[in-house]
Design brief:
- The chain is mainly β.
- 12% of the residues lie in helices and 38% in strands.
- It contains one helix and ten strands; from the N terminus they run E-E-H-E-E-E-E-E-E-E-E.
- The longest helix is centred in the first third of the chain and has 20 residues.
Length: 170
């Protein structure tokens, strides 16, 4: 392809860039890749940044279909066997529920890597279809999540009451 210059002569539309121009282009590309890798250019949010963390003790959450919120479960230590889990949900088609911890909790930037370190836990709720569901979450230690699980060996003082959250999806 060619284009016409101001003096009427035909010239190629692409010319080989000089060494300075190439170096600047490479530096700019490297900078963009670095910023994108660090998450500084927006786009998809990293862990802990894309929703609302509701306070511990919240008993009802209203969501739109596709909307996600988290309810804080406080802090615990995975290293000593603390664990939270969804034990039941009355209408599973209404909302998706699961427990997240550490940097997956909204508003948490860096996880704690030290063994036995305290970390935040939250139940994550995502609206699936209009309706109402009750989500029941339990705290257990060194055992699988079940209604009659052991709570005596964790960092929280036993007995830890189950958390029940009514989820209304509109």
């Amino acid at each position: 392809m060619t284009f016409t210059t101001t003096d009427g002569a035909d010239a190629p539309s692409m010319t080989a860039p000089g060494p300075r121009r190439t170096a600047r282009a490479l530096a700019a590309a490297a900078g963009i890749l670095l910023l994108a890798g660090c998450g500084a250019l927006g786009g998809e949010d990293g862990p802990g940044e894309d929703g609302e963390l509701l306070p511990q003790g919240t008993t009802e959450v209203r969501l739109a279909v596709g909307e996600t919120a988290q309810v804080s479960l406080g802090e615990g230590s995975q290293g000593v066997g603390d664990d939270w889990g969804v034990v039941s949900e009355t209408e599973e088609a209404v909302a998706e529920a699961g427990v997240v911890m550490d940097e997956e909790v909204f508003g948490t930037e860096d996880g704690q890597d030290a063994p036995g370190a305290s970390m935040p836990y939250a139940v994550e709720l995502t609206g699936q279809q209009p309706g109402t569901s009750t989500v029941r979450v339990l705290y257990c230690t060194r055992t699988e999540i079940a209604e009659d699980c052991d709570q005596s060996k964790g960092t929280l003082d036993a007995p830890v009451a189950p958390v029940e959250i009514t989820v209304v999806v509109e």
